[in-house]
Amino acid sequence: MPVVNHTSRDVQFKVVYCGPGMGGKTSNLLYIHSRLGADRRGDLCSLATRTDRTVFFDFLPVNAMEINGYRVRFQLYTVPGQACFSESRSMVLKGVDGVVFVADSRIERRQANIDAMGMVREDLGRLGYSLDTLPWVLQYNKRDLPQILPREVIDHDLGLSAGALPRFEVCATSGFNVFGTLDLLSRMILHRFHDSKSENRARTLLRKECDVAVSAH
Ligand SMILES: Nc1nc2c(ncn2[C@@H]2O[C@H](COP(=O)(O)OP(=O)(O)OP(=O)(O)O)[C@@H](O)[C@H]2O)c(=O)[nH]1
Ligand SMILES: [Mg+2]
């Protein structure tokens, strides 16, 4: 659910990157942080172990645009992929407006993808959300590596039929399709916001501009 502040003229949407441990969630945020100028984003805040495993979340605020005096921001979070951090995931997912599921394309991570999708659905369900209604995008990450699963196998494993769900082949470390993912998801979130019944005033203000979303340039 977006946070709309009419006093500070601010609309904030929450985007959460989910998926298996070591799949590339933090790498997405690192790349976005490295490519946006300081006027377009805040500091990247990460809480990780010494081996760079996320234990609570990563957080990166991104300024998308200003419309009629309202600043639109996307708050990007990652959740830890490790099963033991379920509580962290639930806290971060509270109030989510859109999800990026970062699947790891490596053959040996096949079961990890399945488990992670199960956990995301469970974590969202506990909060009263569902991937059936939330805007979300699938990333097939690590497409630069040899020995990767065909996209169709990942789709099948995750229970996804051929359909309208947006999917991107990604290399999070080089940045391939990282902004493509965020740009599309932010458009989906803005369209949904426009169609929703709440926050009429901000909705009207954002209406004409909801095709302008997040890109690196
Ligand atoms: N070759 C390759 N390596 C990647 C890619 N994306 C991430 N990595 C590497 O995979 C490892 C894990 O990436 P992270 O971004 O830390 O993964 P994470 O999903 O945040 O992991 P957790 O915080 O443990 O849940 C790092 O060594 C990254 O450099 C990719 O597209 N290609
Ligand atoms: Mg991480």
Could you explain how this protein is built, in words?
The chain is of the alpha/beta class and 217 residues long. The chain has a single domain (3-207), classed as Rossmann fold (3-Layer(aba) Sandwich). It is built from six helices and eight strands, in the order E-E-H-E-E-E-H-E-H-E-H-E-H-H. The protein has helices at residues 25-35, 86-93, 110-126, 151-157, 178-195, 200-207, and strands spanning 3-5, 10-18, 45-48, 54-67, 70-78, 98-104, 136-141, 167-169. Strands 1, 2, 3, 4, 5, 6, 7 and 8 form an eight-stranded mixed sheet that branches. Helix 3 links the parallel strand 6 and strand 7 (136-141). The longest helix is centred in the last third of the chain and has 18 residues, at 178-195. Guanosine-5'-triphosphate (GTP) is lined by residues 21-27, 52-54, 78, 80-82, 141-142, 144-145, 171-173.
Question: What's the N-to-C terminus distance?
Answer: 27 Å
CATH fold type: Rossmann fold
Uncertain segments of ≥5 residues (pLDDT<50)? 208-212
* Overall body shape: globular
Instruction: Supply the helix-strand structural class.
Output: alpha/beta
CATH class: Alpha Beta
Number of beta-strand segments:
8
Strand content: 25-35%
CATH architecture: 3-Layer(aba) Sandwich
- Can you summarize the main beta sheet? 8 strands, mixed
DSSP helix count? 6
Bound ligands: guanosine-5'-triphosphate, magnesium ion
C-alpha-based Rg, rounded? 17 Å
Amount of helix: 25-40%
CATH superfamily: P-loop containing nucleotide triphosphate hydrolases
The sequence of SSEs as H and E is EEHEEEHEHEHEHH
